[in-house]
TrEMBL record:
InterPro entries: Cat_transpt, TrkH. This is Trk family potassium uptake protein. GO terms for cellular component: plasma membrane. The lineage of its organism: Bacteria, Bacillati, Bacillota, Bacilli, Bacillales. It comes from Lysinibacillus telephonicus. Keywords: Cell membrane, Ion transport, Membrane, Potassium, Potassium transport, Transmembrane, Transmembrane helix, Transport.
Length: 445
């Protein structure tokens, strides 16, 4: 067994770890004690829910608040927390508490999990992540619990507050409001909207960026990665909020019926949530086609590398945009913030984007075959939401056929791990080629 474990590289261990956690979660959620009426949930539904929780997505085939008991909801919450932080982060913290030595291979696994440049300082980073996560989720939980206490018993308000705080910080999108309503009833509530948006943004930046921001008071230095993530996040979020406000301003089913402040809060929430939280205050199915297409675009991009968010990541998008700009300008080098980007990084960004696009296109095509009778945009929206581990849906998820559910399960799993990580896990290590072929030319454009 030890020999088998030693033969696995970090990418394979990540895949096996997440898969094992999903199977354990599915088993627990399929137990009668996990549901409100003590009936056994079909295993496929339990597997779908467990995958969605571990992959911090939020797509559900059964309503979380009306279906699961307190035990089931706690299981989902634990799966979200472990899936968002990464099981290796928690394992590292437990090993440190027990005084056990963290091996170099385990540090490499942490490096893979957070997409870091090197394994150096991973143990210190893991400890900081846990402390920061606990503080942030606690503050968010207290604020939401106080707000919910005006509408429900205090014990329920506390549980609701912390459940939703953990869910949105980990960009999961699960909610307990019932009837697949998410946070629609709080569309113009500044306390809920601003708290949830803050948790989504912080969780989607990436732990490496947050760590650098914390150290900035001493170092006064930010890495190129952090600068790119912060600048692109601001640009994408502000642009999304403005566009949603414009597109939905006259839509009576969304912003049209709200007060001026409600319109701003509604646009703010929907501009933030595709990055990739999954909670919503506007009814997704009633959005204009322009907003739906914008949402698909944002879901595909996602959040920061090494964060709880999915998608191809904002840094990947930044490299692609800058590469196109450089080519159109006739420049040989790709430069961001006066730093030249290596060709290996450009190729990796292109590979990640094209792999993600290929997955979304294939899943959309297959869903249109297995689950006929819906508008095409619903298939595209569902596939992108699953790949980006977002959790937003136009209402297709509960109506998916068994094959359609399996397709979304696989897509969520690939989206959480990332196409490159999964690809490296199922293929052999790349070897140095003994020879190189002569160059060839192909006409482009």
């Amino acid at each position: 067994m030890k020999k088998f474990k030693d033969s696995l590289d970090p990418a394979k261990l990540l895949v096996l770890g997440f898969a094992s956690l999903i199977l354990v979660g599915a088993f627990l959620l399929s137990m009668p004690i996990a549901t409100e009426n003590y009936t056994t949930l079909p295993f496929l539904d339990a597997l779908f829910t467990a995958t969605s929780a571990v992959c911090v997505t939020g797509l559900v085939v059964v309503d979380t608040g009306n279906t699961f008991s307190f035990f089931g909801e706690v299981v989902i919450l634990i799966l979200i927390q472990i899936g968002g932080l990464g099981f290796m982060t928690l394992a590292t913290f437990l090993f440190a508490l027990l005084g056990k030595r963290i091996s170099f291979k385990e540090q490499l696994l942490l490096k893979e999990a957070y997409n870091a440049a090197s394994p150096g300082g991973m143990i210190r980073l893991a400890k900081r992540i846990l402390i920061f996560t606990a503080i942030t989720e606690t503050i968010g939980g207290i604020i939401l619990a106080i707000r919910f206490s005006f509408e429900m018993p205090i014990a329920q308000a506390i549980f609701f507050g912390f459940f939703h705080s953990i869910s949105v910080f980990n960009n999961a999108g699960f909610d307990l409001m019932g009837d697949y309503s998410s946070l629609v009833d709080y569309v113009d509530d500044p306390t809920v909207v601003l708290t949830v948006c803050s948790l989504i943004i912080i969780g989607g930046l990436g732990f490496l960026v947050i760590n650098e921001l914390y150290d900035y008071r001493h170092t006064r230095v930010l890495s190129l990665h952090s600068k790119v993530v912060l600048s692109m996040s601001i640009i994408l979020t502000v642009s999304a909020v403005v566009l949603v406000f414009i597109f939905e301003y006259g839509n009576a089913n969304t912003l049209g019926s709200l007060s001026p402040m409600g319109k701003v809060l509604g646009a703010l929430f929907h501009g933030v949530t595709p990055r990739t939280a999954g909670a919503n205050t506007l009814p997704i199915a009633d959005l204009t086609h322009a907003t739906l297409f914008l949402t698909i675009f944002l879901m595909f991009i996602g959040g920061g590398s090494g964060s709880t968010a999915g998608g191809i990541k904002v840094s990947t998008f930044a490299v692609l945009v800058t590469t196109v700009k450089s080519q159109l300008s006739g420049k040989e080098d790709v430069v961001i913030f006066k730093r030249r980007i290596e060709i290996e990084t450009v190729l990796k960004a292109f590979t990640v984007a094209m792999s993600g696009l290929f997955i979304v296109v294939v899943v959309t095509f297959l869903l249109s075959i297995t689950d006929r009778g819906h508008a095409f945009i619903m298939y595209l929206f569902e596939a992108t939401s699953a790949f980006g581990t977002v959790g937003l849906s136009m209402g297709l998820t509960p109506e998916l056929s068994p094959i359609g559910r399996i397709l979304i399960i696989i897509t969520m799993f690939i989206g959480r791990l990332g196409p490159l990580t999964l690809g490296f896990a199922i293929t052999k290590r790349r070897k140095q080629e003994a020879y190189r072929h002569p160059k060839g030319k192909i006409m482009i454009g």
